[in-house]
Amino acid sequence: MAIIHYMDSAHGAKSAVKQYALLVFVLVLIALFAYVASSFYKALHVDLVMRFFMAGFFLVFSSFKLLDVQGFAQGYRSYDIVAKKSLFYARTYPFIELFLGFAYLINLFPTVINLFTFVLMLISSVGVLETIINKRKVKCACLGNIISLPVSTVTLLEDLLMGAMALYSFTQLFSKL
Questions:
Q1: What is the pLDDT of residues 100-117, one digit of tens each?
Q2: pTM (2 decimals)?
Q3: Which residues pair with 150 in a beta bridge?
């Protein structure tokens, strides 16, 4: 497990478990928000729950990044393939996530937003996968400097899950035509 390789002391492992617990707590709150927000509609649909989950995910994760944009950009550049080449992109990424969060919340241009999110998450996954394969010990910038976790399979799963939800939502838009 990546967490064991990242931490080299018992204290470090306890700290990592605490950090992962915080991440799980944040994700549970986002899932709860998604369920409650979608329950205000006549029927509870997977598409709607996913849309609100993605809105909550991007809004919460971007807010942590926005607390220290420069610190986030520095960390993100250590593993993202686009951010490595562009400081502007690294500094803009929290704002892109913020925009995506509001776009999912109000269902703004769902076809474009889902396609954009899919591509964004796919690109992000490449850098994460490269970091994991090369066994580089890099701090994940996904929650800014609030939660200190390594880039790991959890990071990769987050990116791939968000990409998969965006792709699913994108294909569902066309199946309803």
A1: 999 999 999 999 999 999
A2: 0.89
A3: 139
